Amino acid sequence: MKVTWHGHACVSLELSNGYTIVFDPHDGGSIGLEKPNVKADLVLVSHEHFDHNAVEVVKKDKTRVFKEFVGEAVVDNVHVKGFESFHDKAGGKRRGRNTIYMVDVEGRRVSHMGDLGDKPSSEVVSKLRGVDLLIIPVGGFYTIEPHEAWEVAESVEPRNILPIHYWVKGLNLPIKPVDEFLKHVRGFNIVRLDSRSFTLESYEKSVLLPKYG
User: Fold this and answer.
1) What is the pLDDT of residues 87-115, one digit of tens each?
2) Fewer beta carbons below 10 Å: N end or C end of the chain?
3) How far is residue 73 CA from its own chain's centroid?
4) Dihedral sign, CA of 179, 128, 39, 45?
5) Given the DSSP bridges, would you call strands 133-137 and 97-105 parallel, antiparallel or unpaired?
6) Is the distance from CB of 80 to CB of 45 less than 8 angstroms?
7) Measured in Å, how far apart are the chain's first and last C-alpha atoms?
8) Beta strands in 116-195 (DSSP E)
């Protein structure tokens, strides 16, 4: 499984047969980054904010799209689960709801936490526990703060972690750089990659930092 970080919260999973899943696409220019260079067979959108729902950027003619989906579905042999969470600490009253996705495909479980603004319930954590890759926002302000992101990661006990939604050069949003999250990491290898992509099967107990820019 090839995993690519397209900046901000946009991540794609390319399966062995070329089938591609994209989480939370942005349009590039509106947040100061490059437009994601990927086309999706399946798009999963955690919530309808402009920097997470630019579906047209990555869509093909027959792309399947799930927005704020809560429940369970099987799409093209991809098992999708959506769990309700919140974009803030006020039960969604400030910024709305957020969907945490988990996909189960090719023997791997990957969870994308979207714009998680508060710690997920213990019930949700129990269903995510042990995922092969936890994709989690770590930049704070709009989402959980860096120390909270680590606390969530510890509770989920993933095999690997991909931090997202943190400041990189060019991004015009007031969020923290990834180093603020890395200060809290314990028991994981911190792997700085030389590209935006990696093969998930190559890593174990790692915080993976694709190169952006």
Assistant:
1) 777 776 677 689 999 999 999 999 999 99
2) C
3) 19
4) negative
5) unpaired
6) no
7) 23
8) 133-137, 160-164, 189-192
Q: What is the largest CA-CA distance in the chain?
A: 44
Q: What single DSSP character describes residue 135?
A: E
In order of 9, 36, 51, 121, 185, the CA distances from 27 in angstroms are 11, 7, 7, 31, 31
Question: Tokens in use for 195?
Answer: 């590209």
Q: Which residue has the tokens 């309808």?
A: 48
pLDDT tens track for 46-93: 999 899 999 999 999 999 999 999 999 999 999 999 999 987 777 766
- 2-209 — its CATH code? 3.60.15.10
Would you say 133 and 3 are in contact if contact means Cβ atoms under 8 Å apart? yes
Helix (H) or strand (E) holding 71: strand 71-75
Q: Which residues, in sequence order, are CB contacts of 80 under 8 Å at separation 6+?
A: 42, 44, 66, 69, 72, 73, 74, 101, 102, 103
Tokens of 206: 């790692």
Burial of 77 (0-12, 13-18, 19+ CB in 10 A): exposed
Helix, strand and coil content of the chain, in percent to the nearest 5, comes to 15, 35, 50
**Percentage of the residues of the chain whose pLDDT score is greater than 90:** 92
